[in-house]
Amino acid sequence: xxxxxxxxxxxxxxxxxxxxxxxxxxxxxxxxxxxxxxxxxxxxxxxxxxxxxxxxxxxxxxxxxxxxxxxxxxxxxxxxxxxxxxxxxxxxxxxxxxxxxxxxxxxxxxxxxxxxxxxxxxxxxxxxxxxxxxxxxxxxxxxxxxxxxxxxxxxxxxxxxxxxxxxxxxxxxxxxxxxxxxxxxxxxxxxxxxxxxxxxxxxxxxxxxxxxxxxxxxxxxxxxxxxxxxxxxxxxxxxxxxxxxxxxxxxxxxxxxxxxxxxxxxxxxxx
Length: 271
Known about the structure:
Layout: E1 2-5, H1 10-26, E2 31-33, H2 53-64, E3 70-72, H3 81-89, E4 93-96, H4 103-108, H5 110-116, H6 121-132, E5 139-144, H7 162-175, E6 181-186, H8 194-200, E7 205-207, H9 213-221, E8 225-228, H10 232-239, E9 245-247, H11 263-266
Parallel strand pairs: 1-2, 1-4, 3-4, 5-6, 5-8, 6-7, 8-9
Helix pairs in contact: 1-10, 6-9, 9-10
């Protein structure tokens, strides 16, 4: 058994485990995500065999007490042949680290990974109810706004103001002048000026779902286009249906149709 010791937030964990799952699938090894055994219980995987608190405790303390070896993937572009050999040969092993990445294998088993992270019915209820109550539109634009820790992340490179996000939405609307657009703005940003967004787009339906992380992720996955700063949250949202995503690396750069990329490209260019 390969126990994936995931770190970081929700969508970091999905991608981390996805890579380990794909490697294990290719090499005939069973895998288990320690994080989804007890946390973020929004998905099908949380109710599968081995994804429970008993297996989590067994892996955690087995590694802590030296009963289960740990292989670490902590450096980019390192030679991990020794770690992979241990994963293949040891009966039980804990794999951890952000650089446990096998892009080709992830893409090979992508649909299986998506199926594992299918949303629970209860997670879909609130977003579905919200969307059903809204007027029908041609397009749904999901805007993921993240500030908070992005004030320091990459020296604040992706820390954007409300006016910069509003400008991006205006440019998106200009690309689709003949289509009605519903705008969903997701994120846990407390300082968000909701009135500014509503005033900027009086003729459009601007909504702030304010769901839990699972609900917001599901809602974004149901949109037709996604915009947001480089983040695994919007990236994973795009994964479910290959929703075109614009990762805003420069808020002053003009938005165009070619700005939007697919998951298969972007997940290999994570910051």
